[in-house]
Design goal:
By secondary structure, the chain is of the alpha/beta class. It contains eleven helices and nine strands.
């Protein structure tokens, strides 16, 4: 196992926990969903043979605390947190950035806001639903999730959210049971602890975000859009596919589905290595 150092970074309205391992050019990994720095434990050591790998808990998640726990969460502020990480760990040197799910939204905004600090971004299934032709339907979904969370609680809201992410018109298909790696299974407790914050703050704040498409077109040579092989037709797949076509770039496919990082870590890490090459 590669040795790692930990630290804390004070940013506007929060204190971020981060971890660093390896040496070489900086690779910043931005987690999505309820994940924190630990969600990359299954791939970070391998990547650290070629990069200085930095991971962190996004503000409000796990060990990164908010000054105001009730504060609304905005993509631009989370992207500024990522920028502050780059300034701390790779001052003056453009870095590679990977983001998964909501973390991919952060990475996309970071690219458009601070392109001078980013050499390459790999965005895995960013749920940028505002770019889709049927964006109004997804706004209605988020409104239903928020109202269900307010009136009925966490798990009913998660049920509404999960239904909205399924393949269009599909009944749930039975899936083969996937045995999670031991580290991933051990993270389940922390994942559940982060869930109320994710549903109540991250989902509404991030899925209402609309990227600057003109800026993305100008920077498309630095952006790699990726999806899971098993995600075809599901909502998180569609924005990346739409953007790849809009930007005229290749849509890359990684092993597994939306959570392929967790279910297929070795194969996922190998695909990420290839996508990061500038």
């Amino acid at each position: 196992m590669t040795a790692r150092t930990t630290g804390s970074l004070r940013v506007n309205g929060a204190t971020l926990h981060y971890e660093v391992r390896g040496e070489g050019p900086l690779l910043l990994l931005i987690p999505g969903g309820t994940g924190g720095a630990a969600s990359f434990d299954d791939i970070a050591d391998d990547l650290a043979s070629a990069y200085t790998v930095a991971t962190y808990d996004p503000r409000g998640m796990s060990r990164s605390t908010l000054d105001d726990p009730e504060a609304e969460q905005r993509v631009a502020e989370h992207a500024d947190d990522a920028f502050r990480m780059l300034e701390l760990l790779s001052p003056g040197e453009p870095a590679r950035v990977f983001g998964a799910s909501s973390g991919a939204i952060v990475a996309v905004h970071l690219l458009t806001a601070r392109p001078e600090r980013v050499a390459r971004v790999v965005a895995h299934e960013p749920p940028l639903v505002e770019v889709l032709p049927d964006a109004a339907e997804h706004r209605a979904l988020i409104a239903r999730v928020k109202e269900t969370f307010r009136t009925q609680g966490l798990m009913p809201a998660m049920t509404v959210f999960a239904e909205g992410l399924k393949k269009d018109g599909d009944a749930p298909e039975p899936k083969a049971e996937i045995k999670l790696p031991p580290q991933a299974a051990a993270r389940a407790e922390q994942t559940m602890a982060n869930l109320p914050y994710f549903v109540g703050r991250i989902v509404p704040g991030f899925m209402s975000y609309a990227p600057d498409l003109r800026r993305l077109e100008a920077l498309s040579d630095r952006l790699v859009l990726a999806c899971g092989e098993d995600s075809r037709g599901e909502l998180p797949y569609r924005p990346a596919a739409f953007l790849a076509e809009r930007l005229g770039t290749e849509l890359r496919h990684f092993p597994g589905g939306h959570t392929g990082l967790t279910t297929h870590p070795a194969e996922f890490g190998e695909h990420l290595r290839k996508a990061l090459r500038v």
